[in-house]
Amino acid sequence: MLVIGIFAVGILFYQVMAGFFIPLFLAALLVVIFRPVHDWIYLRAGGRQRVAAVGTTSLILVIVLLPVILVISVAATQFTSMIRHVGSNNVAEAIDRVRDRFGLSLPHAEKFQRLNDLTDTFDDGEPAEMIKKTNEAISLVSFLQENVDGPDGADPEAALAEQNLEKFISNLETEVAETDEEPSEQAAARKKGELSKSALIASASIRSWMHTLLGGTFRSQLRLIPTPSAASLANLLRENREALQPRFVQLTSATGGLAIEFLIGLGILIVSVYFFLIDGPGMIRTLMRLSPLDDDYERRLLLEFDRTSRAVVLASVLSALAQGVLATVAYYFAGLESLVLLFLVTSLMALVPFLGAASVWIPCALWLGAVEQRYTEAIALAIFGVLVISSIDNVIKVFVLHGRSQLHPLFALLSVLGGVRVFGPIGILVGPMVVVFLQTLLEILNHELAEQPPNELADPSTEGLTAS
């Protein structure tokens, strides 16, 4: 009954405390990271525990929590302003500039797009409908051949395409003429196969001509990618505004349930930091006394939490902040706007393995060169990003870790992505720690199994021989 009671109350306890997991976890993390600072303040305060706890908590609030809140608020405001001022015309003009810059602009784009669509549907529908589409394709080929300058080999290929289209029309007209004769199933299947083959030849001829006219297979495919219409861009931007802007307005104006929940979580975080600093050792001793695990294993788990907090979290956060600051300096000299938003996004992406800060500064460099045509700034940003921004990561982690092992890159990536999916943004920190704790528990289990004496199962037949 005692075990059942503990299990039932434990479920209720989990339901009560689950909503406060994130602030409690962050409080424990901050206490571990700032433990050396707290010990220094404790000595300066003459051994007064409460005074030292108040000083450390205030320091954490000033140098960690308030700057984070300020950066998020300003970044949200800049994001809201950017969403509000971005229009479909701006996006369409930017796309057109990019296409012109890379030589991907397409004259008479609507006619090329229509011809490209027709090549996939020549043998779809009734014969009369197929004849109509084929005649339209012949007209488009003739128009584009006359109005678009191409290489010398384009004209013969255009003539071949027209011939194949006319042959396909001839076969279709024959099919229509023979409709009343009710041919046998074998003849109908043979005729259908001939039509499909003729349609395939005509489609291949048109595509070969378009590839020659537009500069090759790969380049023609890029040029044939349709530019979004102004109406579709306007609808897309409106949907994004309706989905994103209310959330950021709600956050920046400090109104609504989200802001109240945030303030409550912040208050719990601050209070938890204070009490963890005062009563943390006593709480740990109580948990160790109540836990059924061996004290050595419990100390190992606590040591692993401390080591992981410093190795995985502190090294990653410091590296991300350094990359964010350096990238923001580069963004400023490159003439980019919304610097706080770019700093926040760069720092967050720097925490994600394999992607890193390069996933932000590379698009910024491409934007400067391809859209704004500021090639000097784009090249300088790219060089600075490769040599400084993305390289400082290795320097800081080596300095902080001091040779301590890190997670394997694959597990680091999966732990971050899985942690974000389960816990939200805080999963960037929680995910790697969960993997490290699991690894530690498995090592403890392996140690326990290795110390168990082997089970020597007696063989009855062997015992009989021994007795005899």
Largest sheet properties: none
The SS-based structural class is mainly alpha
* Helical content class: over 70%
Strand elements, count: 0
Query: Could you spell the SSE succession in H and E letters?
Result: HHHHHHHHHHHHHHHHHHHH
Termini Cα gap: 52 Å
Radius of gyration: 34 Å
Poorly predicted sequence stretches spanning 5 or more consecutive residues: 248-255, 456-468
Strand percentage, roughly?
under 5%
Estimate the global geometry from the Cα principal axes: elongated
Give average pLDDT, whole number: 75
**How many H/I helices?**
20
What would the keywords be for this entry?
single chain; 468 residues; mainly alpha; 20 helices; 81% helix; elongated; disordered C terminus
Structural description of this entry:
The chain has 468 residues and is mainly alpha-helical. Helices cover 81% and strands 0% of the residues. The chain contains 20 helices and no strands. The protein has helices at 2-17, 21-33, 35-44, 49-85, 88-101, 109-118, 127-147, 154-177, 185-213, 217-223, 230-252, 256-290, 295-334, 339-350, 358-371, 375-389, 392-401, 409-423, 427-451, 460-467. The longest helix is centred in the last third of the chain and has 40 residues, at 295-334. The chain is elongated. It starts with a helix and ends with a helix. Mean pLDDT is 75; it is low at 248-255 and 456-468.
